[in-house]
Amino acid sequence: MSSESPRRRRPTAALALVTVGLILMGGLYAAAGSLASPARAETSEASPALLEKGAVLYKEGCSSCHGLNLEGVPAESVGKGQAKQNGPSLLGVGAAAVDFQVSTGRMPVGATGQQVVAGRSSYNEEEVAALAAYVASFAPGPAIPSEEDLDTTDASLAEGGELFRTNCAQCHNFAAQGGALSNGTYAPAIDPSRPDHIWEAMLTGPQSMPVFNDTTINPDEKKAIIKYIQNINAAPSPGGAPLGNVGPVSEGLLMWTVGLGALIACSVWLGAKAK
Amino acid sequence: MSNDSSSEIEVAGAHEIEHALRRSDTDPRAAQRAERQVALMFGGSVLASILFVVAFVSVKSTAIVDLPLIGRIGLQNLALGLASGLGLFLIGAGAIHWARKLMSDEEIVDERKSFASDDETRDAVVESFQTGVEESGVMKRPLIRRTLLAAMALMPIPAIVLLRDLGPLPETKSRETLWRKGSRIVTDISYRPIKPEDIPLGGLVAGALPADLQKIEEEEGNLNQRAKAAIILVRMAPDEIRSQQIQDGDFQGILAFSKICTHLGCPIALYEQRTKHLLCPCHQSTFDLADDGNVIFGPAARRLPQLAIEVDKDGYLVAKEGFQEPVGPSFWERG
Questions:
Q1: What is the residue range of A187's domain?
Q2: CA B48/CA B39 separation, integer angstroms
Q3: What ipTM, to 2 d.p.?
Q4: Which of B4, B70, B204, B214 could tie A210 with a disulfide, CB 3.0–4.6 Å?
Q5: What is the dihedral of CA A23, A26, A27, A31, to 10 degrees?
Q6: Ranges for the Rieske domain (chain B) (predicted)?
Q7: How many Å lie between the alpha carbon of B129 and the closest alpha carbon of chain A?
Q8: B168-196 pLDDT, tens per residue?
């Protein structure tokens, strides 16, 4: 034994070192995680029962496209203008994205195409909450807005209008009626949308929509925009028939068909032989 | 030259239809009925005009009425429009009904006439012109002829000189914007400076301006500087940028482009974050922001100018330099 070099380690030493290292790393990571997580209260506050329910629902309804661990599933072929993945990874998308996509009925997706369309939600409110909590428990992301976030009583309608026309109207139309994008996609009408869905769409940027996080459009400005959209929906149009609020397209169509039609009918009457 | 060729063409059957009398020509009761109808239309117009005044006086301008299919519209506007439209229409309709049913119903044939004058008149004109040339002596006196031509040729020049002097020339105004090296980038409306970490991946700042614009706008009270300087900011993953106009013009994947379409100058912010395309709603020009801002569809002839950006010592986004090419639609002297 004495002939053995003192620098030579026992075979078990390496194993012990790795074990100690792993425990240390894990402990540090957990400590760092617990320091970082209070900002996202909803991840830690979700009850185990809710998370369990969310896990079951996720595995049934979402995992075939988004993967068992939210990692996403690559597509077999990537077409022009299509999403690069069959189901994108949901890590870090946050509860807001889940609530928006599932409760507007966009997810689970009915048919693949250029645009995932809204419809009736396949899940009730409680199930959506469970799914959102489950997805948010993997990685922090934008949270579902609270009632306080959506309280627009003190928001400025005029500022909301300015912000809407600068940031939203280019796609969603000056009266929030939506409009065409490229390659068969479109921006939907948002005047009937629920305030929480408008908030979540700005935060998460679904499909073609860019992300407007709380630093590019701060929460007060988001409130003002929501107030303006709701006002559009409620306001009458005293000047005359809005014709869908899509501007010269519907107005022109009406004049070219009904207006010119009436003129032609009059000229036929003028030219006909009296009996 | 035969001037009567048109009358030789016989329109088949035109003379064969016998003139049919109207019922109001033969039956006095039908004529009375038509008279009453015309009077009813004129009377209706009287009522509509009275209705217009009544609606104007008695209906509140703020009253709203909810109509099926049409929506919630102003009652006074609706009443005024219907009344004045109906009043005018009934006068016209009554007049036409009167003419069709009661006014005299004769058929008259009016032959077409030739457009050309007869040979005699034409010869007289030529003769008169030639006499004029001879008597003025313009062919015999070349000095007078040439000086007259010179005088006529130079006549418009004073007018051209005057027009040339109208107002100051644009000089370099069409090529310059407010952006300089170090101009801080602020959001439109709220005038907040922007840090790189404020813009998320896939994010868009749909309207951004140089910070000193707010002061200039208040002082000068015009929108010209704003119209030229407006930009948009987008953020994509740095490896998604295939090519850009200015080397390292981005900051960690944040790209700044002019907001003014190079076709006719519409402000554009219709950005699709998946495809990185920017679409102009006016004429559907589409720019690929991940590839030089090049035009990939539509009538725009030039790419969207890029603004090179960096951060200043306080960590806010600023311009690295001014725009390297004129923004907005093409203009005459641009070349």
A1: 157-236
A2: 14
A3: 0.70
A4: B204
A5: 180
A6: 254-318
A7: 48
A8: 877 788 888 999 999 999 998 888 999 99
